[in-house]
From TrEMBL:
SUPFAM superfamilies for this protein: UDP-Glycosyltransferase/glycogen phosphorylase (SSF53756)
Similarity comment: family membership: Belongs to the UDP-glycosyltransferase family.
Lineage: Eukaryota, Viridiplantae, Streptophyta, Embryophyta, Tracheophyta
Keyword terms: Transferase
InterPro entries according to UniProt: UDP-glycosyltransf_plant, UDP_glucos_trans
MF-aspect GO terms: transferase activity
Name used for this protein in its record: Glycosyltransferase
C-alpha cells in the first residue's frame, strides 16, 4: 500500500510537502532524464505528497547552456511543482587540462559543490525526502550524509552498467595489479553478463594505469552507501544482471541498496504541427525500408575518409537510408556544425542515391524519425538514451560506438539483448569502419536473413515490454511506487 505524506494535528497549519532534491548535470542527455524522474514522481502522487527541487550544475565551458535554459523555461511554464536552482559557477580543478577522462573530471568538479548542496538542502523550508545524484557524482554524497538526509544515485544508463560499477572494486582486488584486463583469458567476469572482452569495458575502466580508473572504483564503492540505486531500464530487458545485483553477486555477497528500475525514461512529446523535412521525406518511403544513421546530439562528425567510406557502403548496400551527417566543430569547441555536403561526401553520391536516400546536414528530430513506420533500422553511437528510444519504438540497431560506455552498450545490444547486428570497427583508428564492412552489416540488418529476422523480432518484443512496463501495474510503475514510498518513509524516519 502506498504511504501518504506525514499529516498535521487539527488546528495546525498544513505541513509543507517534502521535496526530492535532484542534482542535474549540464549535459542534455543527463539533465533531461533526471528532470523526467522528478516529473514521474509528481505524476504518480498527483503532486499531493511530494515536490521536486532541481539543482542545476552549470557547465564549466558553457556547452549546452542555451539548450538547458530553454528546457528549464518550458518546465517552469508547465505548472508542475518543480523548482530550479542554478548553482554558481566554480573554478574547475586546477589540473583539469590533464584529467584523462570525463568520469574523473565530473567526480572532482561536482565535489566542489558539496558546500553549496549542503547549504541549499539545509536552507529549504520544507522537509527533504532525499537527495538524488547522477552516475559519477557520488562525491556529493558527503552533503546529505552530513545532514542526515537519505541519498540515492540515478543511473541514466543500463543495469549492466550498474553491475560493472558495483563489481569494479572487487574485480580490481582479484586481478593481479601487474595485469591489464585485456590480458585476462576468457574475458572479464561480471555476474549476470556474458563473458565480456576487456576491449568492451567503458573507456577509463579499461586502463588500470590512469586516474580515471580509480574514480570508477570510487563511485562503485560509494553506491553501496546510498539508500537506493535508480536505473533507467526495465526489469524485462535485463533480468539476469538485475538478479545478480540484487542477490549480491556483484558485491561479494554484500547486499546492495534497493534497486529501482523505472525506465525507459523517454520523454515523448506530441507530434509537431509542422513536420520536419526528414519526416516528410519518410512519409514517401515504404514501411520498415529506411536505415536511419544518427550519432547523438554531441557527435556525428567524421573524417572525410570515414564519410567517403560510409557513402560507399550505403550506396553498395542498395538499401534506403536517412543519414544525419554533421560537420567538424568550430575551433575551440566540441559540438558538431552543419555539414557542407559539397566538401564532405564523394562527388555525385547525393545525385546517384537521391531516389532512395537523404543526407541531412543538420540536427534531426531523432525520436520523431525513430517513431516513423518507414524506419526499419538504426545505426547508433550507442548512447543509452538513443538505445532506450530505439527500444521504445521497436527499431533494431547496428551499433557504431565511439567512447565512454558505448562499446559496452554495443556489446550488450548484440550479445545479451539480441536487438542488434554486430559490426567490426577499428578502435585503434578512431573506431574506423571500412566501406565493405558497413555494406555487409547494412545488408545483414535490413535484409531478409536470419540475423535480421531475429533482431526485428527481439526489438518488437522489447517495444511491447517497454510500453507495458510504464502502464498501470507495469514493472516500472510498481518500482516507481516503491521508490515513492521509500522517499516518504525517509521523511517519517527523519522526524522521529
Amino acid at each position: 500500500m502506498a504511504m501518504s505524506a506525514p499529516s498535521t494535528q487539527p488546528g495546525e497549519p498544513p505541513a509543507a510537502k517534502p521535496t526530492v532534491v535532484l542534482v542535474a548535470l549540464w549535459g542534455v542527455s543527463h539533465f533531461a532524464p533526471m528532470v523526467e524522474v522528478g516529473k514521474r514522481l509528481l505524476a504518480l502522487s498527483g503532486g499531493h505528497s511530494l515536490a521536486v527541487d532541481v539543482l542545476v550544475v552549470p557547465s564549466p565551458t558553457g556547452k549546452w547552456e542555451a539548450e538547458i535554459f530553454e528546457r528549464i523555461r518550458r518546465e517552469e511554464a508547465s505548472g508542475l511543482d518543480i523548482r530550479f536552482h542554478h548553482l554558481p559557477t566554480v573554478e574547475p580543478p586546477t589540473d583539469y587540462m590533464h584529467i584523462a577522462g570525463i568520469e574523473e573530471f565530473v567526480s572532482r568538479y561536482v565535489q566542489l559543490y558539496v558546500p553549496h548542496l549542503k547549504a541549499i538542502v539545509s536552507g529549504l523550508a520544507c522537509p527533504v525526502a532525499a537527495v538524488v545524484v547522477d552516475i559519477f557524482c557520488t562525491t556529493l554524497l558527503d552533503a546529505p550524509q552530513e545532514l542526515g538526509v537519505p541519498a540515492y544515485v540515478f543511473l541514466i544508463s543500463s543495469a549492466a552498467m550498474a553491475a560493472v560499477l558495483l563489481r569494479s572494486p572487487s574485480l580490481d582486488e582479484e586481478v593481479p595489479a601487474e595485469l591489464e584486463f585485456v590480458e585476462l583469458e576468457g574475458g572479464v567476469d561480471v555476474p549476470g553478463l556474458p563473458p565480456m572482452p576487456a576491449s568492451n569495458l567503458p573507456t577509463g575502466l579499461d586502463n588500470r594505469k590512469i586516474m580515471t580508473y580509480k574514480w570508477f572504483l570510487y563511485n562503485g564503492r560509494r553506491y553501496m552507501e546510498t539508500h537506493g540505486i535508480i536505473i533507467n531500464t526495465i526489469a524485462e530487458l535485463e533480468p539476469s544482471v538485475l538478479a545478480a545485483i540484487t542477490e549480491g553477486r556483484c558485491t561479494r555477497g554484500i547486499p546492495t541498496p534497493p534497486v529501482y528500475t523505472i525506465g525507459p525514461v523517454v520523454a515523448i512529446a506530441p507530434p509537431a504541427e509542422d513536420k520536419h523535412e526528414c519526416v516528410r521525406w519518410l512519409d514517401s518511403q515504404p514501411t520498415a525500408s529506411v536505415l536511419f544513421l544518427c550519432f547523438g546530439g554531441g557527435g556525428g562528425y567524421f573524417s572525410v575518409a570515414q564519410v567517403h567510406g560510409i557513402a560507399q557502403g550505403l550506396e553498395r548496400s542498395g538499401h534506403r537510408f536517412l543519414w544525419v551527417l554533421r560537420g567538424q566543430p568550430e575551433p575551440g569547441t566540441k559540438l558538431p556544425t552543419d555539414a557542407n555536403l559539397a566538401e564532405l561526401v564523394p562527388d555525385g553520391f547525393v545525385e546517384r542515391t537521391k531516389d532512395r536516400g537523404l543526407v541531412w546536414p543538420a540536427r534531426a528530430p531523432q525520436k520523431e524519425v525513430l517513431a516513423h513506420a518507414a524506419v526499419g533500422g538504426f545505426v547508433t553511437h550507442c548512447g543509452w538514451s538513443s538505445i532506450t528510444e530505439s527500444l521504445w519504438f521497436g527499431v533494431p540497431t547496428l551499433p557504431w560506438p565511439h567512447a565512454a560506455e558505448q562499446h559496452f552498450n554495443a556489446f550488450m545490444l548484440v550479445a545479451e539483448m539480441g536487438v542488434a547486428v554486430g559490426m567490426k570497427l577499428d578502435k585503434e583508428r578512431s573506431n574506423f569502419v571500412e566501406a565493405a564492412e558497413l555494406e555487409r552489416a547494412v545488408k545483414a540488418l535490413m535484409g531478409d536473413g536470419e540475423a535480421a529476422r531475429k533482431a526485428r523480432e527481439r526489438a518488437m518484443e522489447m517495444k511491447a515490454a517497454c510500453r507495458k512496463a510504464v502502464e498501470e501495474g507495469g514493472s516500472s510503475v510498481v518500482s516507481l511506487q516503491r521508490l515513492h514510498d521509500a522517499l516518504i518513509q525517509g521523511v517519517v524516519e527523519q522526524r522521529k
